[in-house]
Amino acid sequence: MQTSFSNGELLVEVRNQIAHLTLNRPQALNSLTHDMIQALSKLFTAWAIDDGVQAIIVRGAGDKAFCAGGDIRALYDTARRHDGSLFEFFREEYELDFAIHRFLANTHKPYIAWIDGIVMGGGMGISQGAVLRIVGGRTKMAMPETSIGMFPDVGGSYFLSRCPGATGLYLGLTGQTLRAADALYTGLATHHIASESAFEFDYALDTLVDWHLGTLVAMREIVQKFSSKPIEAATLPPRRDAIDRHFAGKTSVAAIVASLQGETDPHHREWAQQTVATLAKKSPLMLEVTRRQLELAERMSLAECFRMELNLVMATFEHKDVVEGIRALLIDKDQKPVWNPASLAEVKPEQINEFFRPRWDNASHPLAHMHIGATR
Which residue segment(s) compose the domain that 186 sits in? Predict the structure, then answer.
């Protein structure tokens, strides 16, 4: 029997001890509302102690998206109200994302994300903690926050900084969209299953009887049985040397841009020029904040990353580039954000430093209760 939560925005059906969770806002690309985040937190808390649920699998309704992120328009309205609800949204979202990352370790119940479709921002937050992250032919994965004057949050500090070489920094700064093969290459996905195999995959879950080796082993075996090689080849491996050469070890985004502008290899010159053009559209200040964020995150635990992100997100909405970015790209749609400062050359070190100034000490931080550690 299917049960709905958050006014029908979440659907749950438990079959054969597996909770099938569906994000049900296809008209909004299954973007997350505050109500959905609160409902998801309650569901995961309940599943953790429910002996009738041994595994969870999440999907997005419709053919287009798993989850395109948080409800950006709602965030825009919330930011303009100045009533404190913006802080509560991000605090609760980050707590949910952290709980998902820790779910297997804390409960021994595997959480599986079927991310065959658009997955961005908040969608990455609720899928990257899954022990099995399945992509398909429709997958379009990205962390495009710098386009709206934001930084890659929802644990992006952690999972992007652990991508191979400088690919995570490249993805975080440019917002480049990945198809299935590149998602596998970066480690942001674990398996590929063809979209048309979804029905047979579900049938295998519904008819599973051999649990004696443990739930995780049983889930892995089924996923592996249906896994296949993506049809489209990965694009990142041929660019990997160039990405590392231009993005790794630089002390500023301005230095990254200068390096890209000096590319002379004919195999990479056009890509380098396109990358410079892409970066030129982003918020200069948030590009520099993102570069430092991912650099610091390399040495942080998952819990420390989320604590840093809560600090950063409060500074981001105070600075207002994010409000301007949302206005230009999603509200007025003039595609002409007025960034402050307007160029990388105008970004001052003290402006970057202000984003990382601690707002709380360790004991009083709103996310101080998060345990150190991560599942991967």
Answer: 2-355
- Which 3 state secondary structure label does DSSP give 306? helix
Of the candidates 148, 135, 144, the residue with the CA atom closest to the CA atom of residue 195: 135
Q: What is the pTM of this model?
A: 0.95
Contact 184, 234 (CB under 8 A): yes
Choice among 93, 145, 182, 304 that is catalytic: 145
Residue 374 lies in a domain: no
User: Smallest Cα–Cα separation from 52: which of 89, 21, 14?
Assistant: 14
Say whether 70 is catalytic: yes
To the query of whether residue 137 is one of the catalytic residues in this protein, the response is no
Tens of pLDDT along 34-71? 999 999 999 999 999 999 999 999 999 999 999 999 88
Residue 217's CATH number: 3.90.226.10
Residues in the chain: 376
Active site residue 116: no
> How many angstroms separate the CA atoms of 150 and 130, rounded?
24
Give yes or no: 221 in active site: no
